[in-house]
Write a structure and sequence with these properties.
The chain contains nine helices and eleven strands. It has 258 residues and is an alpha+beta fold. The chain has a single domain, classed as 2-Layer Sandwich (Alpha-Beta Plaits). It has a three-stranded mixed sheet with strand order 10-3-11. Strands 1-2 form a two-stranded antiparallel sheet. Strands 4-5 form a two-stranded antiparallel sheet. A hairpin with a 6-residue loop joins strand 4 and strand 5. It is globular and about 45 Å long.
Length: 258
């Protein structure tokens, strides 16, 4: 699995600056659609229902069930969150990478493995450590996010991420913006574990829903802190690995079959 071992060697992106959005602007809010303010969307929940550390949202990926050539998880994530996949982008090198399918081959056994790769939602996220404005942050429930108000597009987090899971928005999003998934040119973004769905109580991510609907059942989302949850039960039953476990980041995404 040599490609997984090389994920921390991503080449630094070229510098790009954008204007810093001040605290006053963030407090006032930024309109992204008629009657919808970015501040309102970003919080997602009433203040009296804050994210709780009693919960840790996570994902179990069963690579033995991930089908070759299937991109249903990528398509579902794109549709839910309003980003354009590499295959459909006019500028593939600048396309978002919220989730992507990897095709790996063991150099010793020649065994081929397919698996989706996304933000690993680390308990100790390097992206948060290097962010100069505090835009990258981890919620109490383990979901790692980017505050679009304070992201200045420096891309330090992209260089720090061992999983190449972040990308910079290069183009205007006026025609594709979704009210409950705020995005913005010049901001860094990555998988949010469908935080908007989590906060509405849907209980699942778009990628896991699509994988289940296709009959593959390779993705399982849930509360890793709840010993009675399905994901906790499966984690007890199956041998799993963390990608680049040597970094001791305590990942929220675990893989079986790699």
């Amino acid at each position: 699995m040599s490609e997984l071992n090389q994920m921390s060697k991503q080449a630094p992106a070229s510098p790009e600056r954008r204007r810093f959005v001040g605290a006053a602007t963030a407090a006032a809010g930024l309109a992204i659609a008629p009657g919808v303010m970015l501040v309102e969307v970003a919080h997602g929940r009433p203040e009296d229902q804050a994210a709780s550390s009693a919960v840790r949202w996570g994902m179990l990926v069963d690579a033995t069930k991930c089908a070759t050539g299937c991109n249903d998880c990528v398509t579902a994530c794109s549709t839910e969150n309003g980003w354009t996949p590499v295959a459909e982008s006019a500028h593939p090198k600048q396309a978002p990478q919220w989730i992507r399918k990897l095709e790996l081959q063991d150099p010793l056994t020649q065994m081929e493995t397919n698996l989706p790769m996304m933000c690993q939602h680390c308990a100790e996220p390097p992206c948060v450590d290097v962010c100069p404005t505090g835009a990258s942050f981890k919620r109490a429930d383990g979901i790692v996010l980017v505050n679009r108000h304070t992201c200045i597009g420096c891309r330090y987090c992209m260089m720090a991420c061992p999983y190449k899971a972040r990308s910079l928005v290069h183009e205007s999003l006026n025609d594709t913006q979704k009210p409950d998934v705020p995005r913005g040119i010049g901001c860094v973004e990555s998988c949010t574990l469908c935080v908007q769905k989590v906060d509405r109580g849907d209980g699942n991510t778009a990628c896991a829903e699509a994988c289940t609907a296709a009959g593959h059942n390779a993705l399982l989302f849930g509360d890793m802190n709840d010993p009675e949850s399905e994901i906790s039960r499966r984690l007890r039953e199956l041998p799993t690995k963390q990608v680049r476990a040597d970094l001791n980041l305590n990942l929220g995404v675990r893989y079986h079959g790699i």
